[in-house]
Amino acid sequence: MKTTGFSEAKGKGMFSCKKASHLISASLDRGLTAGERFSLRFHLAICGMCRNFRKHVYFLHDMKDQWPTAADSLHSDESLTDEARERIQNEINRTDH
């Protein structure tokens, strides 16, 4: 039987860290329902490991917008010298034959 949210933990007082981690991740992609928010806040109030997990997930989420992509690096004038570009192109041409 699959259950979700606060009702999952009747008698236990909270749901699992696994469920909390799913809600933390989901909160980055969509708004949580009122029940999900309540259950997550309740869990986070007593679970330091999940609070730490949330802090790291939010940090990584914020950093992804500040980190240059691989494509940006390839098109940057500072990424490779002309000599390095020539060596790479020669190697590509050599292996194509």
Q: How many domains, as an integer?
A: 2
The tally of strands reads 0
Helix percentage? 55-70%
- The sequence of SSEs as H and E is HHHHH
**Average residue-wise pLDDT:** 79
Largest sheet: none
Radius of gyration: 23 Å
SS-derived structural category: mainly alpha
Task: State which percent range the strand residues make up.
Answer: under 5%
Shape: rod-shaped
- What distance separates the N and C termini? 59 Å
Low-confidence stretches at least 5 residues in length (pLDDT < 50)? 1-11
Q: Care to describe what's here?
A:
The longest helix has 17 residues, at 48-64. The chain folds into two domains: 1-66, no CATH class; 72-97. The chain has five helices and no strands. 65% of the residues lie in helices and 0% in strands. The protein is rod-shaped and about 60 Å long. By secondary structure, it is mainly alpha-helical. The chain has helices at residues 17-29, 34-46, 48-64, 70-74, 82-96. Residues 1-11 have low confidence and may be disordered.
